[in-house]
């Protein structure tokens, strides 16, 4: 039986949602790749790169605070089948937006992406805007979903330092606080369950890194 990768050791799959045929097909056909940069941390970025690698201006997905790279697996399957190159990224814990942008630039160079269309959801959308502001010549377009243009409304910058001392369980509750809890359609409920599962297997350092960026 093959051994699990280091990423899978850090984030073991637990719930039945990960055993569904479509997700299993995604993991078996689109390899997980780790890209280490010295800009952010000693931990690597995670990427799923689908479609023709000859395309130098792909669509890049950046997840929300409660999601990982694999939360876009349905989009990667559908769009790559139509001939598009699509990449989903997940970043390691990061404490500085400028460093995050420099690190993403290194990742894009490794993936040989000359320019990118950035799709960002929530926190991913805010970071996409910061990247476009910092590196406009590397950004072809922005597609923003449920995101924000200014973090001033949170007013938690000073207190965010103490999040590093919070236990993982409390941090995960904070991350999940923005997800809907009322009755919803079956497909939407399944996607929420997927995100809840994603957060439930985060390490404490990963959870605090995401909250820190949102603050």
TrEMBL record:
Pfam families: Abhydrolase_1 (PF00561). It is found in: Cytoplasm. Keywords: Cytoplasm. Its main location: cytoplasm. Coiled coil: none annotated. Gene3D superfamilies: alpha/beta hydrolase. Residues 58-167 form the AB hydrolase-1 domain. GO terms for cellular component: cytoplasm. Belongs to the AB hydrolase superfamily. PANTHER family: ACID CLUSTER PROTEIN 33 (PTHR15913), MASPARDIN (PTHR15913:SF0). This is Maspardin. The lineage of its organism: Eukaryota, Metazoa, Ecdysozoa, Nematoda, Chromadorea.
């Amino acid at each position: 039986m093959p051994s699990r990768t280091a990423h899978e050791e850090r984030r073991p799959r637990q719930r039945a949602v990960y055993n569904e045929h479509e997700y299993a097909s995604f993991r078996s056909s689109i390899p997980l790749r780790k890209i280490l940069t010295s800009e952010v941390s000693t931990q690597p970025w995670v990427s799923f790169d689908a479609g023709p690698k000859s395309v130098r201006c792909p669509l890049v997905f950046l997840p929300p605070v409660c999601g990982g790279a694999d939360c876009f697996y349905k989009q990667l399957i559908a769009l790559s089948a139509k001939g598009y190159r699509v990449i989903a990224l997940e970043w390691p814990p990061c404490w500085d937006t400028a460093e995050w942008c420099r690190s993403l630039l290194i990742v894009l160079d490794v993936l040989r992406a000359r320019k990118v269309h950035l799709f960002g959801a929530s926190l991913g959308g805010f970071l996409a805007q910061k990247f476009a502001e910092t590196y406009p010549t590397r950004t072809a377009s922005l597609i923003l979903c449920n995101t924000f243009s200014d973090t001033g409304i949170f007013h938690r910058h000073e207190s965010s330092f103490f999040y590093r001392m919070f236990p993982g369980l409390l941090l995960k509750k904070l991350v999940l606080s923005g997800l809907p809890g009322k009755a919803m359609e079956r497909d939407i409920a399944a996607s929420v369950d997927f995100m809840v599962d994603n957060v439930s297997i985060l390490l404490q350092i990963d959870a605090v890194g995401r909250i820190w960026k949102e603050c």
